Amino acid sequence: MSEQTPLLEFPCAYPIKVIGHGDANLRERVIEIMRVHAGEFDETIITERASSEGRFVSVTVTITATGKPQLDNIFTDLKATGIVKMVL
Fold it and tell me: From CA 16, how far away is CA 9, in angstroms rounded?
């Protein structure tokens, strides 16, 4: 039997891209959720980009991920906001 190598080794820098409605306070809500699950992180490297028509915005945040349960909780809370369309 061969042993599989894990795809990620925790802790690691992990970028999370969140896509949501352009008229919502997406950035602020994403930051709130990240603080709950990841503590403090460098907010100066958050990137934000609007779609060509301005209907959607993507926010990318890089956190120090500690494990799959942490990432699962972040994804669940982001999706539960009602303003997030997709999390990558």
Answer: 16
* HEC sequence for the chain: CCCCCCCCCCCEEEEEEEEEECCCCHHHHHHHHHHHHHCCCCHHHCEEEECCCCCEEEEEEEEEECCHHHHHHHHHHHHCCCCEEEEC
pTM of the model: 0.88
pLDDT values of the chain reduced to their tens digit, one per residue, 88 residues: 556 666 889 999 999 999 999 877 999 999 999 999 999 999 999 999 999 998 999 999 999 999 999 999 999 999 999 999 999 9
Asked whether 83 and 26 are in contact (CB, 8 A), the reply is: yes
Whether 60 contacts 20, CB under 8 Å: no
